[in-house]
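Question (not urgent): is this output format expected?
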Amino acid sequence: GASWHRQALLLEPSCLFSHVWDGLVMCLSMQACLIVPYEIAFDDMPDGGPREVLDWVVTAVFAADILLNFNTGVYRHGMVVMDRVDIVATYLKRWFWVDLVSMVPGPRILEAAGLGSNYSRLHKFSRGLRMLRIAKLHLLLAKISTAFGQTATFALIIVRLLFRLVTVATLMACGWWYVTTEAEQVRN
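Got this back:
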């Protein structure tokens, strides 16, 4: 189970719950990195249904991740630091802003403000902010690798290479599709 530091209700960074949570966040970040370019390139994604539910689930998990990061110990020079002031300062200096920007449901905010369809590029940009989570994948993979040893490290290297290959292929394919459709619209 989760190992909580009793004095300040802080979560140990090496407990099983923390590793499982990091794995969930990593999977949802990977999902965002593969789905978001498709959504940006192919503007014909229907609203509602499973896609919207998944979008809200991802937003909720990313928001919960921010809260957990403010309450999870950090490693400094190989030692676990369980001081809340140090944890908050470390998180604010490193990943908080990336997490916050990638968590904000930009398209939902634009739609609520009545700007969704009128500002297509802004809508696409706000979707693309989820891609910032890819920057954090390296950190999550390193934490999992440290926790599970050499065997997991080799498996994670293979997963990381495959993920990079698929991500680059997805970005290139969707990027070229987007460029050609924008060029076609300019010509017409």
